[in-house]
Amino acid sequence: MAINLKKMAANRELLAGGHRSCAGCSAPAVLRQALHVSGPETIVGFATGCMEVSTTIYPFTSWRVPFIHCAFENVAATLSGAEAAFRVLKRKGRLPEDKKLNFIAFGGDGGTYDIGFQSLSGMMERGHDMLYICYDNNAYMNTGIQRSSATPRGAATNTSPTGKVVSGKQQQRKDMTACMIAHNIPYVAQASVSNHIDFMRKVARGLEVDGPAFINILAPCHRGWRCKPEDSIEVARLAVETRYWPLFEVDDGRWKINRKPKEVVPVADWFKLQGRFRHLLKEDPDGILDWHQEKIEKNWKSLLQREQESQIEG
Amino acid sequence: MHKQIALTGNDAGAEALKDVNPDVAAVFPITPQTELMHKFSSFAHDGVVETELIHVESEHSAQSACFGSAAAGARTITATSSQGLMLMAEICVLTASTRLPVVMPVVNRAISAPINIHCDHSDSMFCRDSGWIQLYCEDTQEVYDTVIQAFRIAEHPDVLLPVMVCLDGFIISHTMEGLEVIGPEATQKFVGPYDPAFSLLNTVDPISIGPLHLAEYYFECRRQMIEAMDNARRVIVEVGQEYGELTGRTYGHLERYRLDDAEVAIVAIGSTCGTAKVAADKMRENGIKAGVLRLRTFRPFPGEEIAEALCGVGAVAVMDRSVSYGLRGGPVFSEIRSFAGADAPPMISYIYGIGGRDVYTRDLEAIFEDLARIGRSGDCGEVYRYLGLRE
Predict the structure, then answer these.
(1) What pLDDT band is residue B1 in, cutting at 50, 70 and 90?
(2) pLDDT digits 0-9 by tens, B267-277
(3) Are B201 and A95 an interchain contact pair (Cβ–Cβ within 8 Å)?
(4) DSSP state of B111
(5) Nearest to A71 among B50, B56, B90 (CB)
(6) What is the CATH number of the domain that holds B347?
(7) Distance CA B340, CA B332 (A)
(8) Mutate which of B51, B98, B209 to disrupt the A interface (most A C-beta within 10 Å)?
(9) Which of A136, A310, B3, B89 is most exposed, with the fewest beta carbons within 10 Å of its own?
(10) Cis peptide before A40 (omega within 30 of 0)
(11) In angstroms, rounded to a whole number, what is the distance separating the alpha carbons of residues B120 and B270?
(12) Contact yes or no for A57 and B71 at CB 8 A
């Protein structure tokens, strides 16, 4: 599906303004970009989190499409119930047989990488026809910036603060996209809120495939990353340009890198924009900066190799 | 088509679900519920029902899938026991407070630790304040009948609360008994089509389900649930009577067995009531006017009806198959006591059958005899007692 922004701009926004997310938050852009692709015939499921809380403060709702929220850890299971209901109601003739609906589940990294991991894995294994979009802001931001398994090594959060003895998160992040690829589902992609055309094309593909799809989209939280609100998109872009967060997709087993930065930007440049890494720029006795740079090079090489293998296999 | 067959309690539950033909079932194994879903899965895979099975990876996801399915306008079921109910308890509360009429057989089993697979009521009693209606069955016939009625109760527009149909693990779930079934045609006519007022799948007039309620609205939500539970009091009786007209088996909140002229009475829930009835018959042969009050409904709690039913009885023993730690006596005893007026009979609390400890007719006969002594002397002695416990 070709993304026609001009045409989309004429569409009615399906996420109404007036919601309570922070100024400069990148997550509403993720929702709006996804909804521009999926259109009004979409059922949205949401894990508890910033976007759920800020868009549905009763008696108001920002959602112009059907929306369901149950709990923090179960959006995949909850929406899989709705998707199963849709199938059986069509089969039993209580809904038109040719009716088509898009099912999109959204969760933050806490609700996806951590507490919702089991529910998500179950949904993927069962093969429900739905798209799961993780908006990854690298920590539990709704509860006030606590480390999650998506938090990068070295980053300071309120549960991995800079201290006199220990500073920042000690462990490396979980590669959630790889976990989803390992489920051998029809479509998995990594995207960034900074590269909206790429993301929207991926949403379209995720909805198009028969069965489950997963998109992991980097969506910075300036509060948690300690950057300027007006830099939310820029800091996401730099994550792509440093190749810390490569844009790629695995479509029916075929790997493709969607952006290959021409100039290699060192990861230190990305760190400099964010207060959560400030302590590392002053003092880095464990060599975390170098560790990141090496890991980036290694991952990139591996991605290139996968892509090449996919091309050979055709 | 009414016909007599023999089934275990689990199979009777599956038979009733088969006759209802629900839209969606979330399936996950746990002893002793497992066979119920084995049987129901066979009905689905043989094409006897058109139900969509969701093979979830945990009970937490089972209840979550039920939440999504029921919100999408599908008639939805699952079944569980013990740790499974514990795991899904968080979402059970959400199902009730979102007013989704899910029906769930709960095959009662003790909760860990230590791990134990046998019957007591500590699992469902743990969920007594979850907002679910709770109906307890005495035998396989009642399992079949109650599962069918549960849909009518849950889906009633004045109620819209989920229903747990509780049956004693192994004692009922794995015991084969004769029962009468009414078949899918009569069942589906009785239950009626499912056409909820709101559906998540309506894209023309979309709704947001599960919004954030802050201090300005949350309290009223709870008040509406209290009202719904109060309405269920009436609806359970209405549905039980209508079912009686169809089958000859009428149900209400309570069953009064030889209670009219009883001098002593045992109050219990579940399969123990059958044993208590046999004991009461024997007592009457021996000249003690014994009766049994069986609670079928535990939520909503029929406190006034219980107080009225026990009025005039000389002494009463209340049997609890679960414990409320820090409160002397179990939940059945303490709740009955909260409705007891000044003229209420003396009441003894028995904690019994914990972790599947057997209860024999002779145990209950001894209780009746003791109650008769209390009735004569007016002296209760120790109020809080244990039955069958090694001290």
Answers:
(1) low
(2) 999 999 999 99
(3) yes
(4) P
(5) B90
(6) 3.40.50.920
(7) 12
(8) B209
(9) B3
(10) no
(11) 10
(12) no
Which residue is closest to A71 within chain B, CA to CA? B91
Residue B358 above 90 pLDDT? yes
Domains and CATH numbers, chain A: 5-161+169-313 (3.40.50.970)
Residues of B in contact with A58 (CB under 8 A): 211-214, 217
CATH at B110: 3.40.50.970
> Confidence class of residue B391 from pLDDT cuts 50, 70 and 90?
confident
Q: What is the count of structural domains for chain B?
A: 2
Flag residues of chain A having pLDDT under 50. none
Closest residue to A70, CB basis, from B94, B206, B213: B94
One domain, residues B50 and B181: yes
Instruction: Please give the helix or strand (H or E) that residue A312 lies within, else none.
Output: helix A288-313
3 state SS of A223:
helix
Which pLDDT tens digit goes with each residue over B363-380? 999 999 999 999 999 899
Q: Are B262 and B289 in contact (CB under 8 A)?
A: yes
Predicted confidence (pLDDT) per residue in B298-319, tens digit: 999 999 999 999 999 999 999 9
Name the minimum distance, in Å, from the CA of A273 to any CA of chain B: 34
Nearest alpha-carbon partner for B105 in B9, B39, B24, B192: B9
The verdict on B163 and B296 lying in the same domain is no
> How far off is chain A from B158, nearest CA to CA, in Å?
22
Tell whether ipTM is more than 0.95. yes
